[in-house]
């Protein structure tokens, strides 16, 4: 499979290593220093584009790639308020688009556990709920996209919570997310339910970027010949 990498930082390099190991070819890499190479002619050399940039550039990259007719996988976070626009573009251009706040297989299993736990705890309002995420100091957004996904899952199942907030809160209807930036942490996410009697806690800790990169390549392999809007649920068969 021929892959274009939109974003060629640490994550892009990790994806390249995994993709080449799996027998794929990287035919185009785009970063801030060669934006002029992001042309229709160049992108059409690829069968799939994998986009890992930042919240300010991701939407434009996705829209451009969909317009050019190339399936795109995106893992950039901090921009998803514009998701309906991306989905509309995917339908307009009859394209393929897959977004995940986290491509790690372990994290996506963690999402399933979080949803199940939130469902079980929904009838136990005596438990206070909190989230914490830890990442390296170069991470551009806070809270992380993974933490926001976890929070949204909990809010959907917990009638006492109406929204998440960054940092502490005294409002019982708000779900607090604590963000810490410590090098070289690639990513830890914790969900905690606390009561006067006991605590229940689930934790996922990434040891490196390999899990994220592997999942992104799996996602690219999945949508290569497809049309539509997808998530890691389809990739992993959940």
List the helices and strands and how they pair.
Elements: E1 2-6, H1 10-21, E2 25-30, H2 40-43, E3 48-51, H3 58-67, E4 72-74, H4 83-92, E5 96-99, H5 105-121, E6 128-135, H6 145-157, E7 163-166, E8 174-181, E9 188-194, E10 199-205, H7 210-223, E11 228-230, H8 232-236
Parallel strand pairs: 1-2, 1-3, 3-4, 4-5, 5-11, 6-8, 7-8
Antiparallel strand pairs: 6-9, 9-10
Helix pairs in contact: 1-7, 3-4, 5-6
CATH superfamily of the largest domain: NAD(P)-binding Rossmann-like Domain
Order of helices and strands: EHEHEHEHEHEHEEEEHEH
**Rg for CA atoms:** 19 Å
- In total, the number of strands is 11
Compose a concise summary of this entry.
With 238 residues, the chain is α/β, with parallel strands linked by helices. The protein has 2 domains: 129 residues, 3-Layer(aba) Sandwich (Rossmann fold); 101 residues, Dihydrodipicolinate Reductase, domain 2.
Question: Can you walk me through this structure?
Answer:
The longest helix is centred in the middle third of the chain and has 17 residues, at 105-121. This protein has helices at residues 10-21, 40-43, 58-67, 83-92, 105-121, 145-157, 210-223, 232-236, and strands at 2-6, 25-30, 48-51, 72-74, 96-99, 128-135, 163-166, 174-181, 188-194, 199-205, 228-230. Helices cover 36% and strands 25% of the residues. α5 (105-121) packs parallel to α6. A 6-stranded parallel β-sheet has the order 2-1-3-4-5-11, sandwiched between helices. It is an alpha/beta fold and 238 residues long. A hairpin with a 4-residue loop joins β9 and β10. The chain has 2 domains: 2-103 and 210-236, NAD(P)-binding Rossmann-like Domain (Rossmann fold); 105-205, Dihydrodipicolinate Reductase, domain 2 (2-Layer Sandwich). The two termini are 25 Å apart. It is built from 8 helices and 11 strands.
């Amino acid at each position: 499979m021929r892959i274009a990498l939109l974003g060629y930082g640490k994550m892009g390099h990790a994806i390249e290593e995994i993709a080449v190991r799996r027998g794929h070819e990287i035919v185009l890499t785009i970063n801030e220093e060669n934006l002029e190479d992001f042309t229709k002619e160049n992108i059409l050399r690829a069968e799939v584009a994998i986009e890992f940039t930042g919240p300010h550039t991701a939407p434009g990259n996705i829209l451009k790639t969909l317009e050019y007719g190339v399936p795109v996988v995106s893992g950039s976070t901090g921009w998803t308020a514009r998701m309906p626009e991306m989905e509309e573009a995917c339908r307009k251009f009859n394209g393929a688009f897959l977004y995940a706040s986290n491509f790690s297989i372990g994290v996506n299993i963690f999402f399933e556990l979080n949803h199940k736990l939130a469902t079980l705890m929904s009838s136990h309002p005596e438990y206070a709920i909190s989230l914490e995420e830890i990442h390296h100091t170069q991470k551009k957004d806070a809270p992380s996209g993974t933490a926001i996904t976890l929070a949204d899952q909990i809010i959907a199942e917990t009638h006492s919570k109406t929204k998440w907030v960054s940092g502490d809160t005294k409002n019982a209807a708000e779900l607090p997310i604590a963000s810490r930036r410590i090098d070289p942490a690639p990513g830890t996410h914790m969900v905690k339910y606390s009561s006067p009697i006991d605590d229940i806690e689930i934790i996922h800790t990434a040891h490196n970027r390999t899990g994220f990169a592997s999942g992104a390549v799996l996602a690219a392999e999945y949508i290569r010949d497809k049309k539509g809007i997808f998530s890691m649920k389809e990739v992993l068969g959940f």
